[in-house]
Amino acid sequence: MILVGDDYLIFTIMALILLSLWVGFRSTAQRELNQKAVICAAVGVGFTCLAILFFNEYGPPRLRPTDAYPGLVNLLTYERTDLSFPSEPAAVAFTFATGVWLVKRGRLGIVMFLMAALLAFARVYVGVHYPLDVIGGAAIGIVASLAALGFLRLMEPVSAWILKGMRRIYLA
Length: 172
Hints:
This protein is mostly helical and 172 residues long. The chain has 7 helices and no strands. α2 runs antiparallel to α4.
């Protein structure tokens, strides 16, 4: 659980999945769909960061479980210095999963949701978040991905133009 709840393992796997989606398929139609999924996830992470910034600035401060209950909760990993609510790792992991699932609707999105849920559980297990923190982070990630999908549909000609330009210089 310490390794899964860490800030790196799940995100490295998800980044490799997104990279393979970006460059991995020979079919032009499939590659374009996959690249739209990656763009949706990336824009969703931007919206997630804005939402978390808002919560950190204007939301009520909430101590981590190990700070609130020092004798009762054993921290199994290094001590964090930021606030507990919302869980940024859970928000970003669910943003990646939702962004891919909204565009592709396949098994890969479900696998990414399972990875995000495992990360959220591990963050509670190692003592750095309350269950409500990861639920709030997951909700922020899902809503941010839905907003990103709506934004990308609204800006469809621009995103298609950017992808075309990236293909022209062999980046997509």
